[in-house]
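Before the break, one more example. Copy the sequence into your notebook; we will annotate it together after we see the structure.
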Amino acid sequence: MIEIKNNNSEIKEAIIKVIAFFDIFDYPLTLKEIWFNLSVKCELVDVIKALDDGVDKIESRNGFYFLVGREKNIIERLSRYNFTNRKLKRAIIASKIFKLIPWIKMIAVGNLLGAHNLKDNSDIDFFIVTEDKQIFITRFFCAGVTKLLGLRPKPGKSRDKICLSFYASEKAMDLRGLMLNNKKEAGDMDIYFIYWLAGLTPIFDSGEIYNKFISVNLWLKEYLPNWQPINPLSQRQVRPFLSEFYHDLVSLFIGGLEPQFKELQLRWLPPQLKNLMNQDNRVMINDQVIKLHANDRREEYRNKFSEIMKELM
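Here is what the structure looks like once it is written out:
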């Protein structure tokens, strides 16, 4: 478990680290966001005291905290709220169609800080949890829907598109094994993945899967001990409505074709992904996880964060 420290100097150092990381993405933080994302176990009042006392290299304005000289990021963040609303509307529309695919258990938007850090030209990353032994057939129909609706991202055309590059079955929801490594040292831990996981925002949840997902990933508290699961607004939720009869009927006719859909998709896999498949955790394809991140930038972000911290500390 992470060592619990709550003295003022440790909290100040942790505050600098979290603000510095999100500065990579031009994203200033609110007081509560700082507390949620700290690596030190403490109370919100401890963070308030530390900030009131003054934290070197940190400034604040209009309720946001940022590195010295980065005040312009406030305007950038506020503008992203409009982009987020537009993109989430698109995501919800897609999810209302996706829920007709009976093997989808959960759909979450996977961007830092609960999908509120969406740039105008960015796509919308979906993380999808599927029923066990139905991951390939689920991916086939999800990809087909986005292609028919013109929602698949293409080179140079990703704005408001749906990126479907990460699936996990309900038997493989513990994602710890997908980190670059399990070390907790600031320069070695997979910091981007930790914040990505903490920021997953469910927009479709069938059978309380999100609660189960959280329960198997509570190891996240070792890195972010103050973090709390996201409770999305009701208007940003797609409610399940399909009956067990519908699920059983569709499964009866085509649910048993999972091996055929797997073989078909492996045959269609682009050479770039095929060459990287299961070489490391960038591109993973098996009966429990499909992760197609050929351009995995986690190492880049980790190195950049390490460089920033060397300058600051």
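The longest strand covers residues 162-169. The first helix runs from residue 8 to 23. Try to locate both features in your own notes.
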